[in-house]
Design brief:
62% of the residues lie in helices and 3% in strands. The protein is mainly alpha-helical. The chain has a two-stranded antiparallel ribbon.
Length: 254
Amino acid sequence: MDTSFFENVQPKENSLPERVADQISRLIVERQLSGGDKLPNEFELAEQLHVGRGTIREAVKLLVSRNVLVIRRGIGTYIANRPGQIEDPLGFAYYPDQTRLCMDLLEVRTNLEPWVAATAAERATQSDMEILRDKCLVVERDILEGKDHLPNDKEFHIAVAQCTQNMVVPSLIPIITFSVGLFGTMTEYALRSETIVDHRAITDAICRHDAAEAERRMRQHLEKNRVELERVLREMDSKNQAQNPRIHGFSKGK
């Protein structure tokens, strides 16, 4: 491996592990390394960067915490599938009103994802379409086998976003993926059969490069989600009223 890329790392403003982590990050970008590519081992990195192996370990830990690297015990250190993208970068899990959050996320998705689907249809490559078809089939298989389909449902929406060839869109994906998981939890995995039908229709439209149909099908999919979520919230509200009548302006027996 060409070591001329690396600089001798000397302590400055940042800690040494931080600076080493920056050098490794630069290596990933400059060499266009992608998810699944393996880094040199700890000894090689220490030698190339002229630092101790302990510093390399600390730098790798920093990059693991940022989802840039993944350690596979006994095998080595690899580039993460989506370097730098964490599951919940906006801290949605800590919003106190998850019900309101679910509705607000769906509102954002309704304004965003139909455009994403249309753009995907316009720009998807043959490779993109093969991946999208595969993701669609995996979700369908999970549903038909009674498995939790939400993890692969998220992967389906990620695949749609990647079809856009837009560098920014995949960075917006956490808005979509968190919403998919939250919706599934709140509705107790409702709309399984509808998901199969809708995902097929969206996939087919994208693979035909039919932007208008892809946009329409995605909008329909999200509208079904909205109707189902509103139904669930009405049921929750009715249940709360029955259990806490005083809160709603009256009390039993008076």
